Amino acid sequence: MKLNVKAFSFTCAIFLGLGMFLYTWWVIAFEGPIAEVSPLSYGYRGYCISPLGSVIGLGYGLVEGLIGGAVFAWLYNKLICEPKEKAEAPKEPAK
Predict the structure, then answer these.
(1) Residue 22 banded pLDDT, cuts 50, 70, 90
(2) Rounded Cα distance, 10 and 56, in Å
(3) DSSP string covering the chain
(4) Backbone torsion region of residue 54, taken as left when φ is above 0, otherwise alpha when ψ lies between -120 and 50, otherwise beta
(5) How many CB atoms lie within 10 A of CB 19?
(6) Quick check: 16 and 72 in contact, CB under 8 A?
(7) Cα angle at 52 between 47 and 57, to 5 degrees?
(8) Which of 8, 20, 51, 54 is the most buried (most CB within 10 A)?
(9) What local confidence, expressed as pLDDT, does residue 2 receive?
(10) How far apart are CA 52 and CA 56, in angstroms?
């Protein structure tokens, strides 16, 4: 079964973007905005545990999910899926 590259990449973008957004607000809800550097701050420039950081994380998640999902679906379709033309068995001559 082939994956639809556009649909898969948009789905990954939404999940990763919302995941980073909700993660940030989850931490804010239980610990408040944190001035310390979070582990995600090392990979995403400008990201921090704050309301503005949640929007920045959403943007990074959307872009990374879109690119990563598209690359994954494209590779999946190229490597895993069966070729379109299947080899047919030789036909028996008519009697």
Answers:
(1) very high
(2) 18
(3) ----HHHHHHHHHHHHHHHHHHHHHHHHHHH----SPPHHHHHSTT--SSHHHHHHHHHHHHHHHHHHHHHHHHHHHHHTSPPSSPPPPPPPPP-
(4) alpha
(5) 14
(6) no
(7) 40
(8) 20
(9) 86
(10) 6
Contacts of 92 (CB under 8 A, 6+ apart): none
For residue range 48-75, list pLDDT tens digits in order.
Answer: 888 998 999 999 999 999 999 999 999 9
- Which residue has 């028996």 as its token pair? 92
Binned at pLDDT 50, 70 and 90, residue 84 comes out as low
